[in-house]
Amino acid sequence: QVTLEESGGGLVQAGGSLRLSCAPSGRTSSSWRMAWFRQAPGKERDFVAAINWSGGFTYYTDSMKGRFTISRDSAKNTVYLQMNSLKPEDTAVYYCALRAGAFTLGAPYNLATAYGNWGQGTQVTVSS
To answer: According to the 3-state scheme, what is the secondary structure of the chain?
Structure first.
């Protein structure tokens, strides 16, 4: 069972930046798809961004495209989420997720149930 360790959350002022990290344990696979989701209090868990482990493609929620960037460093076995121009509405717990295989029509990249492994979450708070 792969575990995902997240880090990098914290408190930042509006307009600031944070970089989240997600490091999977054990041996990695080029078939993996990694993603970030976020969940604000009282709301559903929403898709943020996804990337394949080989780094050939990325997906974003339209509202975050241009502010957030997902990337991975295969040498460090780490996936990152760079968040710039943060807004108070970005305040949420951010979760790293892993899918061990390609996305399908029934398991698309932006659906939480498509992912079988989750990190514990890291809190991001943006003050106004």
So the answer is: CCCEEEECCEEEECCCCEEEEEEECCCCCCCEEEEEEEECCCCCEEEEEEEECCCCCEEECHHHECCEEEEEECCCCEEEEEECCCCHHHCEEEEEEEEECCCCCCCCCCCHHHCCEECCCEEEEEEC
Cα(114)–Cα(34) distance, integer angstroms: 11
pLDDT in tens, 5-42: 999 999 999 999 999 999 999 888 888 999 999 999 99
Phi and psi torsions of 62, nearest 5° = -55, -40
Cα–Cα distance, 38 to 43 (Å, whole number): 10
Radius of gyration of the chain from Cα atoms?
14
Between strands 10-13 and 122-127, the pairing is parallel
Encoded tokens for 40: 């604000």
Amino acid at 58: T
The residues, any chain, with a CB within 8 Å of residue 42's CB and separated by 6 or more, are none
Q: In this structure, what token pair is assigned to residue 36?
A: 């970030």
Instruction: At 75, give phi and psi (nearest 5°).
Output: -70, -30
